[in-house]
Each structure stands twice: as C-alpha cells, then as structure tokens.
Amino acid sequence: MAQFYSSRKPTRKATARTKAPALKQQLVVGLDHQGRGVVRGERGVRFVRGALPNEVIDLQPQGKYDAQLLRIHRSADERVDAPCKYYDECGGCDLQHLAVSAQREHKQRVVRELLHKFAGVDAQHWLEPLTDHSLAYRRRLRLATHWDTKRRRFQLGLRAQASKTIVAMDNCVIAVPELNEFLEPLRTLLPQLKLVSMLGHIELLQTEQRLIVLRLQATPEEADRQALVTFANQHDVQVWLHCGAPDTMPTPLPCEKTTSEHSTPRYQTLGAELDFQPGDFLQAQATLSEKMVGQALAWLDPQAGEAILELYAGSGNFTIPLALAGAQITAIEGVPSMVQRLQRNAERYAVKVSAFHADLEQNWKAYPWAAKSYSKVLLDPARAGAPHAIREIAKLQPQRIIYVSCAPDTLARDAKVLVESGYHLRQAQIIDMFPQTHHIECLTWFEREA
Ligand SMILES: C[S@@+](CC[C@H](N)C(=O)[O-])C[C@H]1O[C@@H](n2cnc3c(N)ncnc32)[C@H](O)[C@@H]1O
C-alpha cells in the first residue's frame, strides 16, 4: 500500500513559537482611541503601540491584530522625545511620543469620530479643550510592590506594559512632586518591616493632606505599626492601612496627622472643601477637575430652587457647587459610604441635597426619586458608561442632560439612545485630564428638541 507523507499539524506550543514575518515599510494611516497607530495591510488591520499617523514603519505582528513597532523609517512631524526616562518599559503613559497639542487634537477627533459612527451625531459647537499642566499633574498614584523572600529584594514602581513586571522608578513625570518625594523613603522603610511579605499595592494621594494607603493581606504587628507611625510623623503624612476584604474601607494609623483637628481627608472642589476617604473615587487632576465642574455648572445654569438630578455623584464633586448655586439636588451614588460622606458634605455647607444609594444599572422602578420630575440631569459614570441608566434618563425627558465621560466609546453608545429619544448635542469639550496617556475625558451637553 502506498504511503503518503503528511506533515504533522503544528501543536499549540509550536504555533505560538512561530513568529509571523515582520512587515516592512508600512504606512501608518491613523491613531485609534487607545492611542495605537493603525496600519492597513493586505492581510488586514494592525494596531501598533508607539506609531503615529503618516509614519513609515517596520512592524512585528503579534497575535491577530496587534503588532510591535520595530523601526521608524519616516517620523511624523508631531513626534517628540518622551519626557519620561522609563517610557520604553512602563505601561503608564502611552502617548508621550506625541506633542501635547497633537494629543488634544487627537482626543477631540476620536470623540467626534465615535459619536458620528455610533450615534450619527456631532456637536453643534466644540469648545477649545480645557487644559492645565501636562506633566506633574496626578494627585493619585498606585504603586505595585514585590518582595523576593529568597533574595531579600524589594521592588516598588509601576507595572510594565501588559505585564506583571515592576518598573522601579525614582520619579513619575506625571505625578505631582509631593508624591514623588515618597518613593525613596518608602523603598528604604518597607523592606525593614515584617509586613513587607504581605504587602499588595500602595496608593499615594495628595489632597489637602498627604496620604499613603498600604494594601495588606493581614494586620501588621505592633512593631511595624510603630515604625509606620514614626515614618508618618517624620514625613508629615497620614498612613492608612487596608487589611480586610477589597470592599472594606482603609483605616488611619493614629499619628500626629490623623489625630489633629484637621485630620479628615479633604479635597477642593469649586467653592468647597469636601470630606473623602482613601478608596473613594477622586478626579485625577485637582485644578482641572475644578475647571471641569465650573464648565458643567455654566452649561447646567442652575436656578434657585430648581430640581436637578445628579447620577454617579461620588462624594459630591459636582453636587456641592451645584447646590451652592441654589439648585435642589437629588444625588445618586452606588457606594453606600460615599453617599454618607456626600450627605455630610452637604450638611456642612447647609445646602439642599438629597443623597441616595442606588445601583443605577438596575431597574429604577423601586426608587422613589426616579418618579419625580427634573428639568436637568448631570451624569458622570465610570468607564462602563450608563447602558441602563441612559434609557431611564431618556424616559424622564429632562430638558437638558450634561454627560461627563471618561470613555468615548461608551459615551458614543449612550449618545445614540439620547439622539433616538429626541436630543441633540449642543456643545462638547475635551477635558485634558490625562495628558501623555490615551485616556480621554469629555463633557457633553444634550438638549431636548423643542
Ligand atoms: C467617574 S466617578 C464620578 C464621581 C464624581 N462625579 C466625581 O466627580 O468625583 C463615577 C462614580 O459612579 C459610581 N458608580 C459606578 N457604577 C455605579 C452604579 N452602577 N450605580 C451607581 N453608582 C455607580 C462610582 O462609585 C463613582 O463614585
């Protein structure tokens, strides 16, 4: 019987090891909403981190759609040297190679394109982007840690791109200087403590106070607590420990900064200073957040006694300024402890706010506040947007809706519902809240057709 040669089917492992051939001299035709260069070749589209439109590059395909940038033959005019020395390793800021003015233009273009594609709408008027510092701006920094027991080596830094590797750094160019000051002292202190082996991430916060939050798998011993108290007093900082399940709240270590009269953590918003707790949502950039609140207020134009519904209210960043302007705010937030802080903030300023806890992505039938009538609605959801809430809002038929978004794709999806419910997009504005990164913050004003 004749025997025929048949090649063995490659195993999964073998397939993974076989590299697709590099693609040479490819033209980058666009920049997607995740800040990746877009190359359209004969074999389909590829997304290339670090590449810019009009560049000619060599790339190495990775997986089905991604590719690694190998070489740039022709650079874009907008290409600049990244300001951060860790740029090639760190996964944090992925647009540093693009000039800041071009980053802003790109972000506005992305929002316009997504709104057009998914909602068939454009703003009647785009305001100039709201901007502030493009470096040294972040007031919140989350650091990864690793303790190698065998080698007794401690690592503290940010995660590398799409990896668990930690990039140790002595300075993060987008963090405010007050946070960078802690990197070296923490790197010295923590390996001396027993708790180093049960340390998860560390969060640094710069608001009216400076705070360090240590995520721990168990409660630390007394000697470690004492060492942390000494550190807190020496460095003029509050140290908080987060030892329980992820949904529990961190607690402060009793030290000079947490037992004094002004110990309650507070942040500034337009015309007010608000209580918050580590673990609560906090806008990334202090001054720009206030400018954004000011713009939302200008668009909402609150009248004395007017009933306004605010959704995804957090601890009151928009709520209190709106109420100080005389409006009667019904504010909804999904984290019960933040609702309490919001209500307390309202009481301190003696303003008219009714704060309720609700999961806005559940049916609204059971919520008494949803049965009332509101002339204006403000919403500021997380990146997932408001897929259910937006339909409920449309049913309420307010005259004006101000949608604050940190994800243009979900904004575009939700905008479609508003357009189909008789709203037009009157104004829009990019808020440059996350310079050097692909992340986009955007303010939009929808008005019901007359
Ligand atoms: C982007 S933050 C905005 C907070 C606030 N507006 C501010 O400026 O600080 C989104 C808020 O929505 C809340 N949230 C997220 N999903 C929610 C849901 N399904 N129902 C109610 N609130 C939710 C979060 O807890 C968070 O406080």
Give me a quick take on this structure:
GO terms for molecular function: 4 iron, 4 sulfur cluster binding; rRNA (uridine-C5-)-methyltransferase activity. By secondary structure, this protein is α/β, with parallel strands linked by helices.
The name CATH uses for the topology of the largest domain is Rossmann fold
Q: CATH superfamily of the largest domain, please?
A: Vaccinia Virus protein VP39
Strand line-up of the largest beta sheet: 6-21-22-20-19-16-17-18
Going by helix content, strand content and strand pairing, the class is alpha/beta
Helix content: 10-25%
Descriptive notes:
- It comes from Pseudidiomarina homiensis.
- This is 23S rRNA (Uracil(1939)-C(5))-methyltransferase RlmD.
- The active site is at residue 406.
- The protein is an alpha/beta fold and 450 residues long.
- It folds into 3 domains: 19-79, Nucleic acid-binding proteins (OB fold (Dihydrolipoamide Acetyltransferase, E2P)), CATH 2.40.50.140; 103-134 and 269-448, Vaccinia Virus protein VP39 (Rossmann fold, 3-Layer(aba) Sandwich), CATH 3.40.50.150; 140-144 and 173-206 and 209-264, OB fold (Dihydrolipoamide Acetyltransferase, E2P), CATH 2.40.50.1070.
- The protein is built from 11 helices and 22 strands.
- It has helices at 12-17, 100-119, 177-180, 183-189, 222-235, 256-259, 286-300, 319-324, 336-348, 389-396, 408-420; strands at residues 23-31, 36-41, 44-49, 56-62, 66-74, 125-126, 140-148, 153-159, 166-168, 199-206, 210-216, 238-242, 251-252, 266-269, 272-275, 307-311, 328-333, 353-357, 376-379, 400-405, 423-431, 441-448.
- It has an 8-stranded mixed β-sheet with strand order 6-21-22-20-19-16-17-18, with helices on both faces. A 7-stranded mixed β-sheet has the order 9-8-7-10-11-12-13.
- A hairpin with a 2-residue loop joins strand 14 and strand 15 (272-275).
- Helix 2 runs parallel beside helix 11 (408-420).
- The longest helix is centred in the first third of the chain and has 20 residues, at 100-119.
- The protein is flat and about 65 Å long.
- The N and C termini lie far apart (84 Å).
- The model is unreliable at 1-15 (pLDDT under 50).
- It binds S-adenosylmethionine.
- S-adenosylmethionine binds next to loops.
